[in-house]
Design goal:
The protein has 146 residues and is of the alpha/beta class. It has a domain at 5-35 and 92-144: HUPs (Rossmann fold, 3-Layer(aba) Sandwich). Helix content is 38%, strand content 23%. It contains five helices and five strands. It has a five-stranded parallel β-sheet, sandwiched between helices. α2 links the parallel β2 (33-41) and β3. α3 packs parallel to α5 (128-135). The chain is globular, with a radius of gyration of 16 Å. The termini are far apart.
Length: 146
C-alpha cells in the first residue's frame, strides 16, 4: 500500500505565510493528506564594502538551531489544531529545497503564500513562489497575501 499523501506548506514564520494554512488544511482533508510544514535556512552571505571591517555572521548550525526553536514556537501557536503536522527545517536556497523536498516526499500539492511583489521590489527580493512554480513536479497553489 502506498504511503499517505503529503501536502507541503512552506513558512517563513510570518503572519503572511499563515494565509495559506487554511487552504493547506482544507486540501489535506479533501486529499486525505498529511501536512508537512517546512522552513528553509539560507546560508549566510557576506556583503561588504571597503570601509567595513569584519562582520560577524552566524554559522549555519546556529541559524538551524534558531530556526528549530522558531518552528517549535510556530507549530505550537498555529499548527496544533486540525490534525498532526510534520515540521522540517532545511538548509539551502528556499525554492530549490522546497521543490526537492516535495519531490522526495512525493507531495501531491505544495501550498504557499506569495507577497505579490512587482517592479523593483520583485527584482531585489526575487520570488521564491515564482521559482517553485517553475520547477515543482507537483501542483502548486499560490495564495496571494493581500
Amino acid at each position: 500500500m502506498a504511503g499517505k499523501n503529503v501536502i507541503v506548506f512552506p513558512t517563513d514564520f510570518s503572519e503572511a505565510s499563515l494565509a495559506a494554512l487554511p487552504w493547506a488544511r482544507r486540501m489535506a482533508g479533501q486529499l486525505e493528506a498529511d501536512i508537512h510544514c517546512v522552513y528553509v535556512v539560507e546560508e549566510p552571505h557576506i556583503y561588504a564594502t571597503l570601509d567595513m571591517g569584519p562582520v560577524p555572521i552566524p554559522s549555519v548550525e546556529e541559524l538551524s538551531r534558531s530556526a528549530e526553536k522558531r518552528m517549535a514556537n510556530f507549530a505550537g501557536a498555529h499548527l496544533k489544531a486540525g490534525g498532526p503536522v510534520t515540521t522540517r527545517v532545511l538548509v539551502g536556497r528556499p525554492a530549490e529545497e522546497l521543490v526537492r523536498y516535495a519531490r522526495e516526499h512525493n507531495a501531491v500539492l505544495l501550498i504557499m503564500t506569495t507577497h505579490g511583489y512587482s517592479g523593483v521590489k520583485h527584482v531585489l527580493l526575487g520570488s521564491t513562489t515564482e521559482a517553485v512554480l517553475r520547477h515543482a513536479t507537483c501542483p502548486v497553489l499560490s495564495i496571494r497575501n493581500a
